[in-house]
Design a protein that fits this description.
The chain is of the alpha/beta class. It has 5 domains: 11-95 and 313-420, Glycosidases (TIM Barrel), CATH 3.20.20.80; 105-305, Maltooligosyl trehalose synthase, domain 2 (2-Layer Sandwich), CATH 3.30.1590.10; 428-435 and 608-784, Maltooligosyl trehalose synthase, domain 4 (Arc Repressor Mutant, subunit A, Orthogonal Bundle), CATH 1.10.10; 454-599, no CATH class; 828-996, Immunoglobulin-like (Sandwich), CATH 2.60.40. The chain has 34 helices and 32 strands. Strand 30 (971-972) and strand 31 (978-981) form a beta hairpin.
């Protein structure tokens, strides 16, 4: 049986949903194996809400998603992967669950039983709300309008489920269970109607009376903990008795139906709806308009999404209940690694990861021959889980979704292999942004929009806006809890609730990282650094007369407040500091990534997940330094250049980067386009729409997404243009709503959006002569070629740098996509399989002639697939050099040395020399030339750290190009060190990976 690698050599991300199932994934396993993939990196496939396109709205952690496939389909998929030697890394969701509707049994139980529910502690609910009307209740903000309007419209309907004997109020697809203690209220009316009806049976009357009394007793019993189980059992018995009665006596079922129709009242007649209102007021929940959640919600959400409720994974019972199936899949040898979604949402990330590691590693321990399930031997190599590079402790392969600030490091005491790769994405992306163009690009942008623009200020204002309109309720709860804490001492009791809320708001808006990680051990030095930074900037910005409140907040957030003799409860101080940490992350995500990144458009390729738009490019030396540090600290972290969450496709991003190399020409073009398109704008409130800022965004987005097949086309295909227009229309609508300046998801501005989409449509109209498109196409030619070279360079760097490269689905060809839903479109795997088969055959026949041929027809994408295939195949053959080999920067000298990135990977006598270009626009000229050969590279050459000698000692072992098969000669320079001319290394292909190994082709 094939052995699955403990450390992946390369992963391929698959997005599972009803349109891409286990069976479809099974069908492409052979393609992934031939491509060179070691592990499938699967999106969540545990049971999510019906119709989910992403799987993050889990409703049952211990069942597979039936829309993706049943157990048999999953096992067939898993067994097929194992047969090819491919493992699985599963994306799991420990932070939240999907709630509402009629599908989450835990949540429905909480609504039915309130704090007595077995799952009341599973969700992060504030049962002791400062608002009297919410005390002991959970706010349920799922109504489409104000509660009173929904009630009077008759949209709340009480129904009876005869199969289970339960009553619920329904609001379209939303179900709100009636607590059993209130069944007697309903049955009283049912009994009255039955007694006054025809064919009354005295025995039925007695049974209904007994049921009423039983449910009344359920309501009146003491709420003591020891009574809860008894109450539950009795309630379930009574429900079953009611169901049996309705089934046995059809007249009872009919009367119940008629009675509920009467009790539901008459739409528009408030008096008939009073009974329904009183019934709802007696429940453990309070129905509310969905907009209320922004200010009054009392359960933790995933960001601002009402239908995703946070769970308390820090509780052992919740951990056990949500990880049973996942750990079983690990035990069976069907899951070989985990990706932890939204680690920053957890109350105590380190504690969670330590428990997860312990449980996962325990699941891999032998259980005896009779208990060893199929595939057990594939879970890990014989020596068990791999070890953490820093601590040396055994580990199951786990990566965390984590966004790191530029100055921030992943916590080294976390038992993980690293992150999912956003920091690598931005590290490698910086190579394609020309730092020399920063000032000019800012000047072009500010002149186009007509005002000075600061990203720092944009981010600050955006975070405050999010706290005011989307996450205000969480801030209010946090401030209330800190207010109660301040009352613990006469030194701090004069800090008011309003003052604390304003100060906390300012601190969060100034926070320099997603969150700190204060825990039972207190605050680390890095935690203190970030808290002090935020406090200092908040204090400076605050207009409050008494700024000592910031001193109180600082010592509270660091937990110093409870050090030594203190009137403050130490446990409460720590709990509030940790709750604060769960708030800063959502504010940063919504305020920066989902607001500021759509407002600040200097160079939109920099506005990427985990990116900082103020960091305008990087040097090769800086890239090498950060890569060496990553190799030392996190050698097995994921390397990503595209994910399901990135703002634009990996090749679209590096295409837009080319603009940084040509600010003067870019300025000339956008001015011309604005003039050409001015007449296409629509006046809204006497102002032309869209604004200059949104128009500037549109032009850059078009640069990135412009189809490669248009590059050499004589005429633009109208059907293809329609597809492009529709994609850009969806993107621009999302962009303006995320920006929240002229429209938003909460308050869509139809007039503005319609005018914006009119400009998009008219700008892309090919039914008549279009001067804008003609000029754009001519401008785009050189950008397209430079962008293609950037894309190949990016692919080579990802597949050769220290770490585990991930290929996001579909990115084996050019990825000129935009943010979701554009980057989640179906992938044509059949086409990719055919392409790979042709490439394998052609390479076997043509050898070194194939690569230049593919380059000439680069728009079809085969050249990218070819590069990936050759490198992934190499990774599988020489896994050791990529999982443990050294990384050595290679010195480059010459006229254009700054346009080359080169490094050496070595292990056990095998060496790889990676040579790739960057900032290539000047080497391309009019778009007909390529940055290869002697043209452009002049005297630029690299110097090898040391000469490689053949095993026979007969001189230097040959360096052979992985893509062309050509041998690259070295020459001696001073000191007997060897050098290679860049013109030779890139003589027929724009990127090169030179292999020096016995027997390597």
């Amino acid at each position: 049986m094939a052995i699955i690698a403990k450390i992946p050599t390369a992963t391929y991300r698959l997005q599972f949903n009803k349109d891409f199932t286990f069976a479809q994934a099974q069908a492409i396993a052979g393609y992934l194996a031939r491509l060179g993939i070691s592990h499938v990196y699967a999106s969540p496939y545990l049971q999510a809400r019906a119709g989910s396109t992403h799987g993050y709205d889990i409703i049952d952690h211990n069942a597979l998603n039936p829309e993706i496939g049943d157990t048999a389909a999953f096992e067939a998929f898993s067994d097929t992967l194992t047969g090819y030697g491919i493992g699985q890394i599963l994306d799991i969701v420990p932070n939240h669950m999907g709630i509402g509707r009629d599908d989450n049994a835990w949540w429905l139980d909480v609504l039915e039983w309130g704090e007595e529910s077995s799952y009341a502690d599973h969700f992060d609910i504030d049962w002791e709300s400062s608002q009297e009307r919410l005390r002991g209740k959970v706010l349920v903000p799922f109504l489409g309008d104000h509660y009173g309007r929904v009630l009077e419209a008759g949209d709340l309907q009480l129904r009876f489920d005869a199969a289970t004997g339960t009553f619920s109020v329904w609001y379209y697809a939303q179900r709100f269970p009636i607590t059993p203690g209130e069944y007697q209220r309903i049955l009283r009316s049912v009994l009255a109607d039955y007694v006054h009806g025809e064919n009354t049976d005295s025995q039925v009357v007695v049974e209904l009376q007994d049921l009423m009394g039983g449910f009344r007793d359920v309501r009146n019993w003491l709420r003591e903990v020891r009574q809860r189980a008894v109450r539950r059992v009795e309630a379930e018995r009574l429900k079953q008795q009611l169901a049996d009665l309705a089934l046995r006596i059809p007249d009872v079922a009919r009367v119940i139906e008629n009675t509920l129709a009467r009790l539901n009242g008459t739409a528009g007649d408030p008096e008939t709806l009073l009974w329904m209102h009183e019934l709802l007021e007696a429940q453990y929940y309070r129905l509310a308009y969905w907009r209320v959640a922004a200010e009054e919600i009392n359960y933790r959400r995933f960001f601002q999404i009402n239908e995703l409720a946070g769970i308390r994974i820090e509780l052992p019972a919740v951990f056990d209940a949500t990880h049973r199936l996942v750990l079983d899949l690990i035990r069976q040898g069907r899951v070989h690694g985990l990706r932890i979604d939204h680690i920053d949402g957890l109350f105590d990330p380190k504690q969670y990861l330590e428990r997860l590691q312990a449980e996962a590693c325990a699941a891999l321990l032998p259980t005896g021959p009779q208990d060893t399930p199929p595939g057990e031997a594939t879970a890990a190599a014989p020596d068990g889980p791999h070890a953490n590079a820093v601590t040396g402790s055994p580990q199951f392969y786990v990566v965390v979704e984590k966004i790191l600030a530029a100055h921030e490091r992943l916590r080294e005491d976390w038992p993980v292999a690293g992150t999912t790769g956003y920091e690598f994405l931005n590290r490698v992306h910086g190579l394609f942004v020309d730092p020399e163009g920063e000032a000019s690009m800012l000047r072009v942008y500010e002149r186009f929009v007509g005002a000075p623009v600061s990203f720092e200020e944009t981010a600050y204002v955006s975070k405050r806006q999010v706290m005011d309109f989307e996450l205000a309720s969480e801030l209010r709860v946090l401030a209330s809890e800190y207010n109660r804490l301040s009352e613990s001492s006469w030194h701090t009791r004069d800090y008011t609730l309003v003052g604390l809320r304003q100060a906390l708001r300012e601190v969060v808006a100034c926070f320099p990282v997603y969150r700190t990680y204060v825990d039972a051990a207190g605050a680390t030095a890095s935690d203190r650094r970030d808290i002090e930074w935020a406090i200092a900037h908040a204090r400076r910005r605050s207009l409050r007369a008494d700024k000592s409140v910031f001193d109180f907040i600082q010592v509270a957030l660091s937990t110093d407040l409870s050090r030594g003799p203190s009137p403050y409860n130490r446990r409460e101080v720590r709990r509030l500091a940790m709750k604060f940490q769960q708030y800063t992350g959502p504010v940063a995500a919504k305020g920066v990534e989902d607001t500021a990144f759509y407002r600040y458009n200097r160079l939109i390729s920099l506005n990427e997940v985990g990116g900082e738009p103020t960091r305008f490019g990087t040097t090769v030396a800086a890239f090498h330094k950060t890569t060496q540090e990553a190799a030392r600290r996190w050698p097995h972290a994921m390397l990503a250049t595209a994910t399901h969450d990135t703002k634009r496709g990996e090749d679209a991003r590096v295409r837009i980067d080319v603009l940084s190399e040509m600010p003067a020409e870019w300025q000339r073009r956008v001015r011309r386009w604005a003039t050409l398109n001015h007449r296409r704008k629509v006046l809204v409130n006497d102002e032309p729409v869209p604004t200059a800022n949104d128009e500037y965004l549109f032009y850059q987005a078009l640069v990135g997404v412009w189809p490669a097949e248009f590059h050499d086309a004589d005429e633009l295909d109208p059907a293809a243009m329609d597809v492009l227009r529709d994609r850009l229309s969806v993107y621009m609508t999302k962009a303006v709503r995320e920006a929240k300046t002229h429209s938003s998801w909460i308050n869509p501005n139809a007039e503005y959006e319609d005018a914006l989409l009119a400009l998009v449509a008219r700008s892309l109209d090919v039914s008549r002569p279009n001067p804008f498109l003609a000029d754009f196409r001519e401008f785009h030619r050189a950008i397209a070629v430079a962008g293609a070279v950037n894309g190949l360079t990016q692919a080579v760097l990802k597949l050769t740098a220290p770490g585990v490269p991930d290929i996001y689905q579909g990115c084996d060809l050019w990825d000129f996509s935009l943010v979701d839903p554009d980057n989640r479109r179906p992938v044509d795997f059949a086409d990719r399989q055919r392409r790979l088969e042709r490439l394998e055959s052609a390479f076997a026949q043509q050898g070194e002639q194939l690569a230049p041929t593919l380059l000439e027809r680069w728009p079809d994408g085969d050249v990218k697939l070819f590069v990936l295939w050759r490198l992934l195949s190499l990774r599988r053959r020489h896994a050791d050099i990529f999982t443990g080999g050294s990384y050595t920067p290679v010195e480059v000298a010459g006229a254009v040395a700054d346009r080359v990135c080169a490094f050496l990977r070595a292990q056990n006598g095998t060496r790889l020399l990676v040579v790739v270009p960057r900032l290539v626009l000047p080497l391309i000229g009019d778009g007909a030339r390529r940055p290869i050969g002697v043209d452009g590279w002049e005297d630029t050459a690299l110097t090898l750290p040391e000469a490689g000698r053949s095993a026979e000692g007969s001189g230097e072992a040959p360096w052979r190009c992985l893509f062309t098969g050509r041998t690259c000669a070295t020459q001696a320079n001073e000191g007997d060190r060897r050098h290679i001319r860049i013109a030779d290394a890139l003589s027929t292909f724009p990127v090169s990976v030179l292999v020096q190994a016995p027997g390597e082709a």
